[in-house]
Amino acid sequence: MSRRPLCQGGPNGSEPGAMRPRGNGTGRAAAAAAEGCGAVSVAFPLTMMITGIVGNALAMLLVSRSYRAKENRRRRSFLLCIGSLALTDLAGQLLTSPIVIAVYLSDRVWVAVDPSGHLCAFFGFSMTVFGLCPLFIASAMAVERTLAIRAPHWYASHMKTRMTKTALLGIWLAVLSFALLPIAGLGRYTLQWPGTWCFISTGDSELSGSFFASTFAGLGLFSLLVTVACNLATIEALVSRCRTKAAAPRSSKQWGRIATETLIQLLGIMCVLSACWAPLLITMLKMIFSHTSFEHCKGFSAEAQSSELHKECNFFLTAVRLASLNQILDPWVYLLLRKILLQKFCQAANAVSKCSNNEWKDRSITLSDEIRRTAA
């Protein structure tokens, strides 16, 4: 029984033979295998791009409508952060996904699309910018909500939308400046296995290269820790305030609904960020400290399916795929965890529970009647 060749790949599922030289017989076989996988694998980046664009566009539309509503004046800074996050993710999708699709259509040969190598540097730059920006914006959201809940008087008097806009602009400018450091010779962007994407090189023996890569991973992990710590502090404050205002008037109950929606959105974004970025950042630090690079994945053969090298390369690719999913999942967390959908979910849950309770009551009444008849 013959087995179909497996397509294993880069950020969106490309085939490992993309960086192998094409010899006479072996090269044609590899090319044929790549063509057999290409018709399927190209659907992955295309689907991810469409899903990300639709989700981020819808999130920006809903944020703009909520921002104009009078009842959301206290949440305008939070809505600005949500809108900035969606805009950043949308820009990342529009700049990186077409390049990946073009490489797929070129039989996953990067040189065919980028013979000069300048596109590789741009792709690595985009990966760095649109990797760090969402992490720092999520941290800004977490800090903003913590101040709003735990220090409401200071927040009301000092926290204005102008300050939020300044902080977001500062995040973008700082990340852009950091991502431009390889142009000044501090670090470099290289083509990564299996040849469909470019990112920061982790195998540089020079101090400047390892410093740039370790700084990227360190900043990412630091922003994750800030987000988790602030969100946990916010959740603890929300739970305690909701308990004290349980028997409060209608306005306080409305505040409780808004607080619950915010809490669930923060939890969702925190979980998505941690699950998507923590594996890649930790793997990068591990590679930097061990002075290894996944550029050596180019050399492993198809016969070494059970080797440690093969497992490490596949784990790295899984971590990269998870990180690339962040741009897609972020807006859908906001879209799906909104008050309207939460109310519909609660209504459906209540309806199901009432139906089950009524059915149980009917069964118990019928059973009691049967017992009475039997006893008579």
From TrEMBL:
It is a multi-pass membrane protein. Its main location: membrane. Residues 55-334 form the G-protein coupled receptors family 1 profile domain. Residues 1-26 are annotated as: Disordered. InterPro entries: GPCR_Rhodpsn (IPR000276), GPCR_Rhodpsn_7TM (IPR017452), Prostanoid_rcpt (IPR008365), Prostglndn_DP_rcpt (IPR001244), Prostglndn_EP3_rcpt (IPR000265). CDD domains: 7tmA_PGE2_EP3 (cd15146). It is found in: Cell membrane. SUPFAM superfamilies: Family A G protein-coupled receptor-like. One of its GO terms (cellular component) is plasma membrane. This is Prostaglandin E2 receptor EP3 subtype. It comes from Aythya fuligula (Tufted duck).
